[in-house]
Amino acid sequence: MTETADLEQGPDQDLERAGAVLAAEAARFASFGWMRGTSGNLSMVLSRDPLRLAVTASGRDKGELAPSDVVLVDAAGAAVPLPDGRAPGRPSAEAELHARVARLTGAGAVVHVHTVASVALGRRHPGGLVFKDLEMLKGVGHPAEGEEITLPVIANSQDMRVLGDRLEEARDPRMPAVVVAGHGLYVWGADPRQARHHTEVVEWLLELELAGGR
């Protein structure tokens, strides 16, 4: 059973459990230097109908998140008051994009990290990056030989609707990730563990390209 499926008992009851999962994932990414300071954000789908996500709260150090440092948001990325009367917190400014990725791809979790490799290569390759003949491609569901896979790159925007439109237009269903030029990397998966694995694999591919001087 996936972590997402485990958390489909009710958003009001499961938000803190989701927060614990996201806090652990954020601490892992922060330890790699991928979520420095308060940068980056994570989300996890709690229900599909209606769509509800737990999203990391804005302005928190991602290496020090507590299970309570998450906000329940709807399909538009807006904070949802909890049934127990607690006021909603302030979600990441990019919660709307997380919700759109979840709707568009069916993902159960979305990761957004600010890595040096993604920012540097996004600027150098605005048309996307092509990978082939690499064992690590197996980590995103592709053979190590005989197939080219493109990691899309899109221009940044502070308007999440504009950024979402760009992601939707550029997305390759075979690659569970997209680079936002000058900004960072968005990656998704069926649950937080798969999203983590995809993130680590895609970042490895980017670091390889950067090490090769491309």
UniProtKB/TrEMBL annotation:
SUPFAM superfamilies noted in UniProt: AraD/HMP-PK domain-like (SSF53639)
Enzyme class, spelled out: lyase
Cofactor note text: Binds 1 zinc ion per subunit.
Catalytic activity: 5-(methylsulfanyl)-D-ribulose 1-phosphate = 5-methylsulfanyl-2,3-dioxopentyl phosphate + H2O
Domain Class II aldolase/adducin N-terminal: 20-210
Pfam families tied to this protein: Aldolase_II
Binding site for Zn(2+): H112, H114
Domain of life, source organism: Bacteria
Cofactors (names): Zn(2+)
EC code: 4.2.1.109
GO terms for MF: methylthioribulose 1-phosphate dehydratase activity
Entry keyword Repeat: no
Function, in words: Catalyzes the dehydration of methylthioribulose-1-phosphate (MTRu-1-P) into 2,3-diketo-5-methylthiopentyl-1-phosphate (DK-MTP-1-P).
PANTHER family in UniProt: METHYLTHIORIBULOSE-1-PHOSPHATE DEHYDRATASE
Protein name: Methylthioribulose-1-phosphate dehydratase
Lineage, uppermost ranks: Bacteria, Bacillati, Actinomycetota, Actinomycetes, Kitasatosporales
